[in-house]
Amino acid sequence: MPTLLGRTLLPAAILLVGFNLRPLLASVGPLLDAIQRDTALGDTGASLLTSLPVMLMGVCLLGTARLQALLGTSSGIFLGILLIALACLGRLFWPDAPVLVATAVLGGIGIASVQALMPAVIQYHYGVRAAGMMGLYSTAIMGGALLASFVSPRIAPLHGWPTALGLWGGLALLALGLWQVAGPKDAGAGVLPPAQRLWRTPRVWTLLLFFGLGTGAYTLVLAWLPPYYTRLGWSGQAAGTLLSLVTLTEVVAGIAVSLWVGAFHDRRILLFPAIAALLAGLLCLALAPLALAWLAAILAGLGIGALFPLSLIVAMDHGDDPAQAGQIVGFVQGGGYLLAALLPFVAGVMRERLADLAPAWWLMIGLCVLLVVLAARLRPGERLFYNGKFHSDKGAANGLL
After folding, report:
1. What is the model's pTM?
2. Residue at 202 is within a domain
3. Do the domain assignments include residue 265?
């Protein structure tokens, strides 16, 4: 059992760890022009700095059960934070194209390890209050993106982009120390059901697709919103500030979700407005990017910021205990991140071939319509596990879909 000090510091440790899960990605976009100039990375290659970590996050998250059995929950999270720290520091000391790609791999694995295992910690220690804590944890993740997107483009002109990318290693080391003190040793203990059994119900694919498309909007904006505006004539700092506004509104939306989600048994009451806000923001980007830039940032941020925690909370709702919730969320995030990794990559190819990112916004607009269809199917009170037993497609015929 954790010590009294550990139990007291556990909420802060969870939030600080979450805060470290996005600076590796969010610091790149505002500095991409300078990085490409100094490393000769093309648009497709530059897209890998976002899409590759996200893809690897998905691959690792699909192995949540094996990861937990191999490392344990708390130790696995510790290792994940350590990898994030090493990835950031690698960019500080060896700022060239191969190292950027290698640290994208290393950091992606670290982020995935934390995101695979943290839901079980939250569910195990917070019980009926897990949805609210998951909302705060998700908000902390977005808060890290906010800080990185705002600070990095302001550090780069003074100390260079390697420092602006690498300084986040210090924050990761701080989280590493706090987790060593406060991280529980027994969270989510137990044997998880075989992950492949989840494949047998269409319900989990609905959850996976919903999470993947919503997160795809986030990775698309994170990777390409600043370059989109620098090509329209904005400075790197101004484009970074716009991305900061997106992430600020994501944080506001995430906090609102954490405060209100417990009042809504039917999560769709919150899902539909979130999708509508994202759709409106994307329409502003596609139709009037200069005139409506700030409105687009606010609307897109509100939509993305609400969808991210809500999609995780809805996935957690389908389990009966912490182990089941952790397995479901790991599977949904794993496949979802693989899907989300495609969007920034496709956008990079579009930019390289067409010299325009507007088609990428239109693609995401179309996917928002699909999000509405998927959200409509997420009725409350349905589980993938009942009394500890997994329900496959046979159960779906009785209303599990």
Report:
1. 0.77
2. yes
3. yes
pLDDT in tens, 247-281: 889 888 888 887 777 666 677 888 999 999 999 99
400 domain residue, yes or no: no
Count of domains for the chain? 1
Domain assignment of residue 133, given as a range: 4-189+198-394
156: its two tokens: 């780069």
pLDDT digits (tens, 9 = 90+) for 122-156: 877 777 677 778 778 888 888 898 899 889 988 98
Tell whether 178 is covered by a domain. yes
CATH code where residue 68 lies = 1.20.1250.20
**pLDDT tens-place string over residues 35-86:** 888 887 777 777 888 888 888 888 877 776 677 777 778 888 999 999 999 9
